[in-house]
Amino acid sequence: MSLETMRPNPTWDAASYEDTVDALAAREDLTYKVWGGDWCKDCRALLPDFGAALEAAGVPDERIDEIALDQDKQGPGVDEYDIEYIPTIVVEDGSGEEVVRFVEDEDVPPAVWLARELEVEGEPETAD
């Protein structure tokens, strides 16, 4: 089942978020698992721009798993992934390992937050 709220916002300006788009496009091994609900005001506020960012980054549909939850926040993967708040976006690498997770109330939009985290996660560790 897909989420109507993941339909890309047609007014989202990719040029204003070039670094975000580049960071999301850089890793072709990532899968985005998005838990939300079309009934959820936070999802309606945050996910259309996230959908637009993924589209601008050229992330193919087969790497985006949209998981609709009911109003009790129940649905596929809720227990397995310990989903409590929505929207929640879990980013996994090619081996299915969780790389980073966005949960509902970060201080910046999901695409920007995930891009920042992915850039940090992708940086080589330095010796002290």
Map the helices and strands.
Layout: H1 18-26, E1 31-36, H2 41-56, E2 64-68, E3 88-92, E4 98-103, H3 110-122
Parallel strand pairs: 1-2
Antiparallel strand pairs: 1-3, 3-4
Would you kindly provide a written description of the structure presented here, covering whatever features stand out?
The structure is a single chain. This protein is of the alpha+beta class and 128 residues long. It has a single domain, classed as Glutaredoxin (3-Layer(aba) Sandwich). The protein contains three helices and four strands; from the N terminus they run αβαβββα. The protein has helices spanning 18-26, 41-56, 110-122; strands at 31-36, 64-68, 88-92, 98-103. Strands 2-1-3-4 form a four-stranded mixed sheet, covered by helices on one side. Strand 1 (31-36), helix 2 (41-56) and strand 2 (64-68) form a beta-alpha-beta unit. The N and C termini lie far apart (47 Å). 34% of the residues are buried. Mean pLDDT is 92; it is low at 124-128.
